[in-house]
Amino acid sequence: MSNINAADINELYPVAGQDNDSQGFRDNFDLIKTALTTAKTEITTLETTTAQGVVYDSATNTNDFNGNIIREANMIANTEEARISDVIESDTTVNWSLGNYQILTLGDAVTLTLTGWPSSGKMGKMRVGVKTNDGITKNIVWAASGGGTIKTNSAFPGTFQVTSSTDTIFVDFWTSDGGTTVYAEYLGLFD
User: Fold this and answer.
1) Strand, helix or coil at 56?
2) How many CA atoms lie within 13 Å of 89's alpha carbon, on the beta-carbon side?
3) Same domain flag for 70 and 100
4) How far apart are the first and last CA of the chain?
5) What pLDDT, in 10s, does the model give residues 19-29?
6) Whether residue 116 sits in one domain with residue 71
7) 60-65-66 Cα angle (round to 5)
8) What is the full DSSP assignment across 131-142?
9) Residues 6 or more apart from 67 whose CB is under 8 A from it?
C-alpha cells in the first residue's frame, strides 16, 4: 500500500475571486512535494526489488520477462502449458517456444523437426508425447532444425514407431546450444 498522502492537498485552493493567503499556496506546495518525494522512494523500491523488463500483453493476459533472470525464487504449485496438437498428417515442426509439454497425435508417418529453442547458453527442455489417431503403426523420424544433431540414449529405438491411439510414448528433448546438439531421452510407452 502506498504511503502517498494526497488527501491533505486542498484542491479547492486558491478560491477564485478572493484574496488568498499565500500560506495556503505554501501548504499545498509542501504537501505536493512530500507526495512526490514519497512516490519517488516507492517507485525506486519497485524498480530495484521487482521483476525487471516485464512486458504485459493485455490481449493474452501474459507477462514476458524478456529473458531476464529470476533468482532464488521459491515456487509453489506452478504449472507448465500443455500443448495438444490436432492430428498431424504431414511433416511438421515441434516448436519449443509453444510449450515445454506437447502431445502429438499422428495421422501418418512423419518427420518431426524440433525447433524454436532458446539461444546458446540457455537450456531448453521439452517433453513430447506421441500417439496415433487410429491405432495403425506410424513411423517417426526426429530431426533438429538448422542441421542440428540429435543425440539419443541407449533406450531410444532405432526405428521410432507409434502404434497406439490410447497410449502415449514420451520422449524428453533438451539443448543448451540453441539446438545445434539436441539430446533425446526415450522414456517409453505409458499405457
Assistant:
1) strand
2) 0
3) no
4) 52
5) 888 888 898 89
6) no
7) 105
8) EESSS--EEEEE
9) 53, 118, 122
157: preceding bond cis by omega (within 30 degrees): no
Asked if residue 131 lies in contact with residue 160, where contact means CB atoms within 8 angstroms, the answer is no
131 and 157, same structural domain? yes
- Indicate the residue type of 71: R
Provide the pLDDT confidence category of residue 191 given band limits of 50, 70 and 90: confident
Please state the domain count of the chain: 2
Give the integer Cα–Cα distance in Å for 24 and 131.
77
pTM, entire model: 0.73
Inter-residue contact 184 to 152 (CB < 8 Å): yes
Residues in the chain: 191
Q: How far is Cα 118 from Cα 179, in angstroms, rounded to an integer?
A: 8
Range of the domain at 45: 1-77
**Rounded-to-integer distance, Cα 100 and Cα 81, Å:** 7
Residues 73 and 63: their CA atoms lie apart, in Å, by 17
**Which of 146, 150, 142, 140 lies closest to 182 in space, CA to CA?**
150
pLDDT digit string, tens, across residues 36-76:
999 999 988 877 777 767 777 778 777 888 777 888 889 99
- pLDDT, tens digit, for every residue of 131-174? 999 999 999 999 999 999 999 999 999 999 999 999 999 999 99
Residues 105, 133: contact at Cβ < 8 Å? yes
